[in-house]
Amino acid sequence: MRQWILYVDESGLFEAPKLPFSPNFVGGVLVDVTDVQADLAVLKRGLLECFPFLPWPLHATICRQPAAHVAGSMLNPAVGPPWMKRLHAAVERRSTPALKDLHLAVERREIPDQAILVKATEALVAEAPALVRMVREQMLLGERRLSTRLAHVARLLGDSLLVSGAAGESSTSYSVILTAAIRSSLRLIRRRLGPQPAFRLTVASRGNSNGEDLSDDDVMACASEAMRMTFPFREPRSPDIEIASDLPKPMNESTSPWLVVADFACNRLFSELGRDQGFPDLERHASLKLGLPLRGRPEWASRPLPSIDFEGEVARSWVSEQRLEWEQARSAL
């Protein structure tokens, strides 16, 4: 029996007022763990080498803030170049409220939240613009390394690794888009004939619509609904895939490298999904930014099909193009 795991994160403002060309995204990476598996220790080390100043787990949004790299190098001075110490000194002078906040976080052995990092970066630019430019150069190098290394992993694993998920308008709830994301993966792995694969969900923790922590029951409710709607079957059917859900995972030192990759996938695709572009253009940008494919090949299809779906009706070229591909493949069954 084949076994797949979907590592799920999200990006966006769910249930916010509907905004034009502002989608949310739920999804991440779909991995076939039946035969060939990546060495998770090697994968983790490779990710950390892309952003050597930052501690584990990496967060895609945090990686884009120069102040985070400065704070990370203060937490582990051995990894920073000599010129970084001048930025350390600027933080230690605490000349602005933002730098005081950054310094306090470092004293607590933490990377602060996004709001503090944005203001701290502005303060560091005012004090040492040339050095912050050097940090940004290191960040861009890290982005390129990340894409290259994930592309290498994708080549090694072949059809066993791809990005999968679903987008939805800004007013759409997380649970609705999570259901579509699970459906997007199930339609790729569900077999027309023969034994069905096992499917596991590893979802990054977050709050649910009741203000409580996301639970296994929340995830499995979405999975059950997704099962009824899944290709390649034309009519709803009772569940025939063994589905399980891990307890939703907080991002901490024990976080799986695949969940970190899922975070980067959501972050890097978020802006691209809001553009009115064709699916081939979306694939090209995903390859440049992430190095991972946006297609998988179901056992019943003659060619790879798009692995990103959209929940709702919207006039975007990539949405209509990927739906047309699926309808054409489905009509051939």
Condensed summary:
Helix content is 48%, strand content 14%. It has helices spanning 40-50, 60-63, 66-75, 84-93, 97-107, 114-127, 129-157, 174-189, 216-228, 257-273, 279-289, 317-331; strands at residues 3-11, 23-32, 161-169, 198-203, 242-245, 295-296, 305-306, 308-311. Strand 4 (198-203), helix 9 and strand 5 (242-245) form a beta-alpha-beta unit.
Helix content: 40-55%
Order of strands side by side in the largest beta sheet? 5-4-1-2-3-8
How far the N terminus sits from the C terminus, by CA atoms, comes to 23 Å
Q: Count the strands?
A: 8
Q: What is the N-to-C succession of helices and strands?
A: EEHHHHHHHEHEHEHHEEEH
Number of helices in the DSSP assignment? 12
Mean pLDDT score = 91
Using the alpha-carbon principal axes, give the shape: elongated
Q: State Rg.
A: 21 Å
Strand content: 5-15%
Question: Sheet bearing the most strands, described?
Answer: 6 strands, mixed
Structural class based on helices, strands and sheet pairing = alpha/beta
**What are the segments in which pLDDT stays under 50 over at least 5 consecutive residues?**
none
If you had to describe this structure to a student in words, what would you say it looks like?
The chain is α/β, with parallel strands linked by helices. The protein has helices spanning 40-50, 60-63, 66-75, 84-93, 97-107, 114-127, 129-157, 174-189, 216-228, 257-273, 279-289, 317-331, and strands spanning 3-11, 23-32, 161-169, 198-203, 242-245, 295-296, 305-306, 308-311. The chain has twelve helices and eight strands. Strands 5-4-1-2-3-8 form a six-stranded mixed beta sheet. A two-stranded antiparallel ribbon has the order 6-7. β4, α9 (216-228) and β5 form a beta-alpha-beta unit. The longest helix has 29 residues, at 129-157.
